[in-house]
C-alpha cells in the first residue's frame, strides 16, 4: 500500500508505506451477523484459497470477532428508492490466524479470495478477547544501532560536561 507519489512532499511522521510480514498473514473473513451466534475465539477453521483451489487446505483459528460492521459507523441507515428504511443483513469481520507451517508450504498473497469454514462444535471460548495482548504483534530492531550510538553520545557529553563543570567550580 503506497500512500505517496513520486515528487510529493511529506511531513515527518507521515506513513509512506505499510510493511506486511508474509509469513504471518491473517484473513478477515466477513460473516453474516446471523452466522456469529456460535462463533468463539479459538475455534478451528478450515481455509481454501482461490489461488490453489480445493487441492490445498489451510488450518487456522479464530483470533477475534469484529466489534461492529461498517454500517454501524455510518451517519444514516440504508434507505431504498421509495424512502422506506430497510433491513439489510450486515457482515462482521472475523480475524482468522493461518497455520504458519502451512503458509510456508503454500504462500498466499495479500488480497486473495478465500473460503473459510468454522468448526462450531466447541463453544467454550470467549466471544470477545478477555485480555489485551501482552506484547506487540510485531516489533523491529531496525533503529537499535542508531539508538545505541545516540545513547553513547549522550553519556559521553554528560560525562564531559560534568567533568568540565567540576573543574570550573574548583578553580573559583
From TrEMBL:
Q: Which keywords describe this protein according to UniProt?
A: Cell inner membrane, Cell membrane, Membrane, Transmembrane, Transmembrane helix, Transport
User: What's the main place this protein lives?
Assistant: membrane
Q: Which GO terms describe its cellular component?
A: plasma membrane
Which part of the chain is the p-hydroxybenzoic acid efflux pump subunit AaeA-like beta-barrel domain?
Answer: 26-118
Compartments reported by the entry = Cell inner membrane
Q: How does it sit in the membrane?
A: Single-pass membrane protein
Which positions are tagged coiled coil? none
Work out whether the entry's keyword set contains Cell inner membrane: yes
Lineage top rank: taxon: Bacteria
Pfam families of this UniProt entry?
Beta-barrel_AAEA
Q: Which family does it belong to?
A: Belongs to the membrane fusion protein (MFP) (TC 8.A.1) family.
Q: What is this protein called?
A: Multidrug resistance protein
Native source organism of the sequence? Pseudomonas syringae pv. actinidiae ICMP 18807
